[in-house]
Each structure stands twice: as C-alpha cells, then as structure tokens.
Amino acid sequence: MSTAFGDIDGGRPTSGVFAAVDIGASSGRVMLGRVCPSTGATLETVHRFPNGVVELDGGLRWDFDALFAEVLAGLRAAATVAAGNGERIQSIGIDTWAVDYGLVDASGKLIAPPYSYRDERSRSAVARVHALIPPEQQYATTGLQFLQFNTIYQLAAEPSLDGVQALLIPDLIAFLLTGQRRTEATNASTTGMFDAVTEEWATEFLDVLGLPRDIFPPLIQPGESYGTLRPDIASQLGMPSGTPVVAVGSHDTASAVAAVPVEQEEFAYISSGTWSLVGLELKHPVLSKESRAANFTNERGVDGTIRYLRNVGGLWLLSECQRTWAAQGFAQSLPALLDAAAALPPGGPQINAEDPAFTAPDNMPERIRSAVRHNGDVLPDRPAAVVRCIMDSLAAGYARTLNDAERLTGRTAGVVHVVGGGSQNRLLCQLTANATGRPVVAGPVEATALGNVLVQARAAGVVIGGLTELRALVASGTELVRYEPVEARIVQSSSRSSTGPH
C-alpha cells in the first residue's frame, strides 16, 4: 500500500521523506532526505544560504532574523519539491554548531541577536568562573575541554538573566517553529553545565554561579519530538500543522558521527572539514586527569554514546592558502595542487596544525613558512610544498591524536573513517592511512545531513534498530573509498595513481 507519506507494510511505513536543516558557522542548507531500508538513504539539496557574524551593539552576533528567514525559505522549497514529486515531508530535523544561544523572555521574544562564540566578551568571565569552579572540578563533572567560549563562560558574562531562558541555536529554531522549549542533549553536552555521568544538568554549577536553575529548558533526546509546527508557520511553509519537528543529533558533529558507515565495532572517526574532529565512540566518558591534560573532550552522541575527541585543525589551512594565492594571481586548481604535492618526496617539514596561531586569516602561506623556520627548517616558497606540509601535518596530527585516544581509553581502532569534505581529499586520506598504520575508509561527504535524516526516519518507524542499522543504511547507499597503509615512497606518485585507494 502507498500513501502520501510513503509505502506502508503492516501499519509501519517502509519509506519516508524528511527535511534536514543543517547549518554551519559560515553557511547552511536545507536538504530532502529519502529513506528506504531496502535501498538506503539519498539526499537532495533544495536551498543553500550564507551565514556569518555581524558587528552589532559593540559585539559579534549572529544575524538570526536573516538566518531564520533562510530556514523558512528552505523549508518552503523542500515542501514544494516534495509536493511536485507526490511526496509529503514526514518531519523536520535541525543541526547546527554548538555553544551559542539566544535569550528568550517569558512571552517568547528573542531579546537580542545571539552572540557568536568568536566574540571576546566571555574571556573576562573565565577567571571568575574558575575561582568558583576550578577547571579540574569542571572536567571531572562535564568531561568538556576548556574553550573560553564554552556556554558556561558566555552565560557568566551576561549582565542579567532575570526572566529569560537560554535556547541553544538549534533549540531556538525549533522553538520558533513549534512554540515548545526544549534542550537537545548532544548540544547540551557542549555547554560546560551538563553532567557527563548523570546525563542531567549540573545544577550545582548553576547554583555556584548564581544562574537560575531553569536557565535552560528541559532536556530532550535525539529521536524525541519538540512538538509540531505552529499553524501560522505551517501555513507559511505549505506543510500540515501536524508536521513534527524531531530532535536529531543537533550538534552537527553528533549527526556526522551517527552516519559513520562503520564496518566493525572498534573504529576511529575523523570529521574532516574546516576543522578536524578526531576521536573514538565510547559507551562511557573518560574523566581522568590524564584525559584533561591531553585536552580531550567527552560530548554526547546519538543513543547515549560518548564522542571522545580532540580538535586537530583542518582544511581551513588549505582554503586560506588558496585565498592568499588567488589574491596574488596564482589560481591553480585544487586537484592540480594536490597532485603536485603528492609528487613531492615524503619527510618534508611539518607544523603543529592545532596551534592557535593558525586560527585567524591573513597570509596563511607565510605564517606556515614562519612556523617551519621557527622549528629550524626551511619550506620552499612554492604552493605545492606548502600544500604537502599541510597534508603531512594534518595526517601526523590525526595519528598522534588517535594514539593518545587509544592510550587514554584502552581501546584499539582497527579502521579510521573519514567523513565530511575531507573524505574527498585523496592525498590526505592516503597520508592518514600511512601515518596511522591502518586502513582509512572515506565517505560520506554529507555525513551530517545523513545522520540528521536517519534519526528522523527511525523516529517515524521507517528504520528499526540502533546505530548499527542506521550506519548499515549509510554504507549501502554511499560509494566508499578504502585506502590501505603503504610505504611512504609509494605515495610520491600522483594522487590519481592506482597505488592509492584499494
């Protein structure tokens, strides 16, 4: 039997169509996901839009009105595309970046555009928070690595929180769509006020800091429903008012890790893009002093898992170099740059890709060469040499992080899965396999949106099972590329060489 929602088998839908709102700190998109257990999951992008911070009221804030307008435009486009295919969207899921929030008053009004984590206001609150809650105590409770823009420091910098609640960005979007206030758990775990063991708010931290105990709405888990679309919103979107907004892994990395097409239980993952998040999936947090000293973080994943990871820098280095070279009149394509870099011999100079000195823009090639000189080495002033330095440095950083994660957890990963944009970089994937000494499986590129859609599909009953079943669907519908570790001398050939992926 077939309906507007999909095929029905014994009262359970066997296929479905879902809308994924996936927003990063520089851009966003709305995608239609079609899920069928027998054929896998597919994605269709229906709307893309820019996102970014603006200078407002003396600080860096998100243009949230514009952002929400783009979300509505994307959902309208999704409804139109689905209707044109005789389909109806079963639910909506939202994932974004972490830590930032909007303050909403009792009437539901957003009192000001949300601050961006790039704003410096939280820096002044760090010492005050640490005087009340020492960093060692924070880590023992939350398992969260120290970042000066963590939500706990942002809230401590607020002049007043009387009569308001803080809604993390995906929860704020869901509130405007449904009128219901909730806090999704994977994003809650990035605030610095979420107890990694009890999986509830660390109310003792709120009390010590003088924050209201209800500063955040109640917690909700991936797969649960925020509520259904408000009638006025449903009318704007051309969707039924009963359309649910489903909590997914609202922290985008949580959704990405949920879509890792794992082939075995013991695996490592690299969510590779502007930044690289390298880690293991655990059942329990690691809250030791050694873990804190190694700067690992314990964040919640889908189905109560722990994303035990460290940020290792990423392809921001490469994109910034390209931007500088283009401004200087050198506009060689990325594939050509990577081929030229792959042809260089191994053993060249490296940098620490995690160094905060590489966080800001402005002449990245020269900053990289300067770092190499500081290490007592020389990096030729040729784009290919700089690109090879970046790729070697990232691969080495991935290997160090994986070794640290295994040492601190007692786990051993037999394979490394690379998802996100970096999974398309053949040179980086091969060098990662060489550096880690284990196979690398690359793909999918759109892991975040797939994880978002699959959690929705399971909530709708289209998919039955846990992460194993969700990931099997990703593997069945994705063209994956496997890179085996090889001797470094073999990688001197072009990245198109058949000696690369297997």
How would you describe this protein?
- The protein has 502 residues and is α+β, with helices and mostly antiparallel strands.
- It has 2 domains: 2-250, ATPase, nucleotide binding domain (Nucleotidyltransferase, domain 5, 2-Layer Sandwich), CATH 3.30.420; 252-443 and 480-502, ATPase, nucleotide binding domain (Nucleotidyltransferase, domain 5).
- 35% of the residues lie in helices and 21% in strands.
- It is built from 17 helices and 22 strands.
- The strands form 6 sheets. Strands 18-19-17-16-20-21-22 form a 7-stranded mixed β-sheet, sandwiched between helices.
- Helix 9 (252-258) crosses helix 16 and helix 14 (383-409) packs across helix 15 (426-436).
- The protein is globular and about 60 Å long.
- The model is unreliable at 1-6 and 488-502 (pLDDT under 50).
Task: Please name the defining characteristics of this protein.
502 residues, alpha+beta, Nucleotidyltransferase, domain 5, seven-stranded mixed sheet, six-stranded mixed sheet, 22 strands, 35% helix, disordered C terminus
